[in-house]
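hey can u check if this looks right to u? its 154 residues, i copy pasted from the old doc so theres a chance i mangled smth
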Amino acid sequence: MKAKSAKAKSKRLGKAESLTGDAWRHVRVTEALKLKLVHLQDKWLTVPALKAHGEIRKPITPSAERFLRKLEANGGERVPRSRKWGSRGVRTYQDEWVWPKKNEDYLFPALREDAELQRRNKDVVSAAIRRIRKSYTPPATSPTFGLILAGSEA
């Protein structure tokens, strides 16, 4: 008789659990990836339907709104980076994110032309988040404002 695989024994994944308290206001990775420019309205964000959940409106915090307006004014974000490539030495490149041109464009479009989806994939973004968390160092304390907390609103 054939043994069952570990995957068959694992719990079946389904509908995402509801967020408790004020946590529903936070945007999940999957929600952010489905966003198009048309979903940003005034001080509200309309998150498209996911799995068994319907469409939902979430408020945009004042600091997030300022951040979005800055991105829109700059036409996106460009960050120069350097990386050691073994015998090739240090190479510099530029990570670039461009503000969408049309209302129906995704905020996070696919980077590859042969991609299945027009938007970025959750697996790719989650892997990037894990890499960033490993190398993240919290900001130092400020003499005028005391301790600066990561993620606190400015």
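Strands lie at 40-41, 44-47, 56-59, 76-84, 90-98.
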